[in-house]
Amino acid sequence: MDRHKLLPVASLLFAATFWGIVWYPYRLLENAGIGGELSTLVTYIVALIAVTLVRPRAWHEFRNAPISLIVVALASGWCNLAYVLGMLTGEVMRVLLLFYLAPLWTVPIARLLLKERVTAIGYMVVLLSLGGAIVMLWKPSLGSPMPSTTAEWLGLSSGFCFALANVSVRRVANCGVTIKTLCVFAGVILASLGALWVNKGAMPSLTPIYEEMPLVFLIGGMLVAMSFATNFGISHMQATRAIVIMLFELVVAAFASYFLAGEVMELKEWIGGIMIVIASLFSGHIHEKEQPSQ
């Protein structure tokens, strides 16, 4: 694999690694009394300000594809907020299972919007990655894999928006990675403000934020790195292949939960993780031929 093909893969693996551990600092903020809506809002504001200060002229590219970038912002906004809220308020395994149905949504969305054709081997790779996610996450004792609570619907809708956002990012070919990243941040901020407005009867105290500012800035920095890596990788790779590689996050999350939260990995988690890794290795055969990089 040459450098031009390797770099997008490496970027997505880097992003997946960070996404696999970012839940932990959000959990710390929750324990410090900063709810999911507020912690999401402040960390993404930090990320937006940081990138804007470094690349203010990137906003000028918004006029190149305003409608498409608005779709990116709205889809990413709900995806990230719903994921955080679902993880903080529901059964983690259930929310993750429903979120990682994303490959199922990506295939038809990419076929409709990007005209991506998936080969028979490609469908097998997608099913293998999805099967790995189910093996890792599904607990039969929790019932059928259909959402039944608010948190579970948050996980399902987050996964759908994740697929839509990734395809939309790939579709915006005449804009750079920076403006796509800024639109993601702006979308999450708007979604968080909307959620806080809906719950305005119980507005949270801002005092814990000042006490946890180092952690807030740390998460903001992580978000910048993850978002740039994700948008770069997706912009230079088919959406269906990208979604398979991003499932590597599950493997990282399993190890992170062991070392950071003391959760023991079971045999099924090892098996599911191996399935995802194998699917990632064969993700280059999802399509009949590579589309030219943007």
If you had to describe this structure to a student in words, what would you say it looks like?
The chain is 74% helix and 0% strand. Helix 4 (66-89) runs antiparallel to helix 5, helix 4 (66-89) packs antiparallel against helix 8 (150-171) and helix 5 runs parallel beside helix 8. The protein starts with a helix and ends in a 13-residue tail after the last helix. The protein contains 14 helices and no strands. The protein has one domain (3-285). The protein is an all-alpha fold. It has helices spanning 3-19, 23-31, 36-54, 66-89, 92-99, 102-114, 120-137, 150-171, 177-198, 207-211, 213-235, 239-246, 248-261, 267-281.
Beta strands, count: 0
Radius of gyration: 18 Å
Q: How much β-strand is present in the residues?
A: under 5%
Low-confidence stretches: 290-294
The N- and C-terminal alpha carbons lie at a distance of 18 Å
Q: What oligomeric state do the depicted chains represent?
A: single chain
Q: What is the residue-averaged pLDDT? A: 83
Which key terms come to mind for this protein?
294 residues, mainly alpha, 14 helices, globular, disordered C terminus
List the SSEs and their pairings.
Blueprint: H1 3-19, H2 23-31, H3 36-54, H4 66-89, H5 92-99, H6 102-114, H7 120-137, H8 150-171, H9 177-198, H10 207-211, H11 213-235, H12 239-246, H13 248-261, H14 267-281
Helix pairs in contact: 1-11, 1-13, 3-9, 3-11, 4-5, 4-8, 4-9, 5-8, 6-8, 6-12, 7-14, 8-12, 9-11, 12-14, 13-14
